[in-house]
Write a structure and sequence with these properties.
The protein is of the alpha/beta class. It is 32% helix and 15% strand. It binds 2'-O-acetyl adenosine-5-diphosphoribose.
């Protein structure tokens, strides 16, 4: 944690849009930081209609058991079930649209003199579709499939139009080695993170003048260790999340607000930029 800064809670109920103006200490940090690293989690996509994992009523892990769907053992035991579940999620994300918070991050990154690095735990492509370049997809991508045997990249299978969450669809064979099957390029529990992505994320956190954490419960490591790593090396950490998270003790300032409201308000408060600099 950076020196002498206690967490700043914004008045108002969590999740209540309330006063959308950014808290002054957060705005001051955002205005002065040239190197900004943003770490996003599932809450970033919630307002696009993509469910989080751990929200008590709507989270995916409230309805599904991750050990049946998101482990190498599950893939070996019931590949049709796992394949169908990820195809259902591919179809769902394809229908979703980035919201104003995704767009605000792309606008911020386009500000002259700002080096904004985006690190996400999300396997969707909503940041990219809003015009952002993502430095690191820590947990892989729903759109980067590979062979489960030879590991070479393969095109993502097309989900059936009626893709359902509890169907079984046999995985398609690898087009390279014929011994393997196409598996989603996501990180399952028990698997290591992509090395380069994690190294890039660590560097981005250590080199930043501000680390902004948006919409993650802070429960899944090693991604959850990144804010603490930044704080321990003196980088100010700000959290945006409507609900309390495990990162409360790490963050210097906390803004209890949804991403789709807070990020546009924050970026707007930074002031106008030339239209020629806006993302296309
Ligand atoms: P979680 O589901 O654990 O946490 C989602 C966070 O988003 C919570 O803190 C919510 O309060 C917050 N949230 C909800 N709505 C929000 C909104 N509109 N704006 C901002 N925040 C909001 O998701 P993650 O922390 O991303 O891993 O989960 C980490 C990893 O666990 C995922 O990447 C996934 C999962 O198992 C793998 O699949 C490997």
């Amino acid at each position: 944690m950076s020196p002498d800064a206690g967490p700043t809670a914004v008045p108002g109920d969590p999740g209540d849009p309330g006063d959308p103006a950014p808290p002054e200490p957060i705005l001051t940090l955002a205005r002065s930081a040239r190197r900004v690293t943003v770490l996003t989690g599932a809450g970033m996509s919630a307002e696009s209609g993509v469910a989080t994992f751990r929200d008590p009523l709507t989270g995916l892990w409230a309805r599904f058991d991750p050990t049946d769907l998101a482990t190498p053992q599950a893939w070996r035991a019931d590949p049709g079930l796992v394949n169908a579940w990820y195809l259902w999620r591919v179809a769902l994300v394809r229908r979703a649209q980035p919201h104003a918070g995704h767009q605000a991050l792309a606008v911020w990154a386009a500000r002259p003199g700002v080096d904004l690095r985006l690190v996400t735990q999300n396997v969707d492509d909503l940041h990219e579709r809003a015009g952002s370049v993502v430095l690191a997809h820590l947990h892989g991508s729903l759109f980067a499939w590979r062979c489960d045997h030879c590991e070479r990249p393969v095109p993502p299978p097309d989900p059936p139009t009626d893709a359902g969450e509890r169907q079984r669809i046999d995985p398609t064979p690898c087009e390279h080695c014929r011994d393997g099957r196409r598996r989603p390029g996501v990180v399952w529990f028990g698997e290591p993170l992509p090395r380069t992505a994690f190294d890039d994320a660590v560097r981005a956190c250590l080199e930043a003048e501000l680390v902004l954490v948006v919409g993650t419960s802070g429960l899944v490591h090693p991604a959850a260790s990144l804010p603490r790593l930044a704080a321990e090396s003196g980088v100010p950490v700000v959290e945006i999340d409507p609900h309390p998270t495990a990162l409360a003790a790490t963050a210097d300032h906390i803004w209890r607000a949804p991403a789709g409201t807070a990020l546009p308000a924050l970026v707007e408060a930074l002031g106008p930029i030339e239209s020629a600099d806006l993302p296309r």
